[in-house]
Specification:
Strand content: 35-45%
Mean pLDDT: 95
Structural class: alpha+beta
Radius of gyration: 18 Å
Largest sheet: 18 strands, mixed
Distance between the termini: 6 Å
Helix content: 10-25%
Shape: globular
Number of helices: 6
């Protein structure tokens, strides 16, 4: 296993990801046990399915279950493959249980290389039973309605549904102390895989801060969540808080965990309109064994 910190924003930042560079000999149970041992989202690189026209497959496990897709593990895996000379081209097609993900070298060389991966067009939905759901969310986060910004609480997804909760300030965001014992049940009721409260850091520069409280991953908070940040980008677009262009959007996360992280997102422009997004960030070696 190799461990990388993904979406780093300074020393000690990013989301740590254990990655098995060749998992072809591992069983499902062994992959699950590795994720449990590390207590982290873990990635397992495999040969691609025959006829898939992909370069490789990645499977993703958290301590409690397998996931269909994990953004930071995918970015970290591409960076490791490139660093180890196992990525023959600057582009790759990755088979995942959520569908084919494309990756490419965005900038830099060697350890300074930065990769970006595709996410599909985001889908935004109202909460089921909006008034009751919002009241329960506020109760679980232990805040009041006056702490909300004047935008809707929404479910959003590119790969997995996240619940976007607009807050008035980063001070409110940083001070959140959720009742973690109730997060899983709440997420079940609102058809979500995690709560993603956010607040503007610098709206003019399209920089937003966020925190991720996952439904049932085996840990209470996530330092950097690429899939949630992608969903947030489309929620911001829906609420006209970012431009409908390929201008960079920055999502900062992990500060409350003392793991500062920065996730970069750019919309892909199709014909007509936006067709998806690119998700990227810096990667650093954290250690290994």
């Amino acid at each position: 296993m190799k461990i990388v910190n993904v979406f780093t924003d300074g020393h000690g930042g990013g989301n740590p990801a254990p990655i098995a560079m060749d998992a072809s000999s591992l069983s499902d149970a062994e992959m699950q046990n590795i994720a449990k041992e590390f207590g982290l989202e873990s990635g397992f690189i495999l040969p691609p399915p025959p006829g898939s026209l992909c370069d490789f497959e990645i499977r993703y496990f958290v301590p409690n279950h397998e996931m269909a897709m994990c953004g930071h593990v995918t970015v970290g895996a591409l960076w490791l493959l490139h660093k180890d000379g196992k990525l023959p081209r600057q582009r790759a097609k990755i088979w995942t249980k959520s569908g084919i993900v494309c990756g490419r070298l965005a900038e830099g060389v060697g350890a300074e290389a930065q990769f970006e991966i595709t996410q599909p067009l985001g889908k935004i939905d109202a909460l089921p039973n909006p008034a009751d759901s919002e009241a329960e969310i506020l109760d679980v986060l232990q805040i009041s309605k006056k702490d909300l910004a004047p935008f809707p609480v929404q479910n959003a997804a590119t790969s997995r549904v996240k619940t976007l909760i607009p807050l008035k300030s980063t001070a409110i965001l940083d001070a959140l102390q959720p009742d973690f014992t109730r997060v899983e049940g709440l997420c079940e009721r609102i058809d979500s895989t995690g709560l993603y409260p956010y607040a503007p850091h610098d709206r003019a520069r399209q920089i937003y801060d966020a925190r991720q409280f996952p439904k049932n991953s085996g840990y209470p908070e996530d330092a950097a969540t690429g899939i949630a940040a992608s969903a947030l980008a489309f929620g911001l677009l829906e609420n006209q808080l970012v431009d409908a262009s390929d201008r960079p959007i920055t999502i900062r996360q992990g500060r409350a965990m003392k793991r500062p992280s920065k996730i970069d997102i750019r919309f892909t422009l199709g014909d007509p309109g936006i067709s998806g997004c690119w998700l990227s960030g810096r990667v650093e070696i954290a250690g290994g064994r």
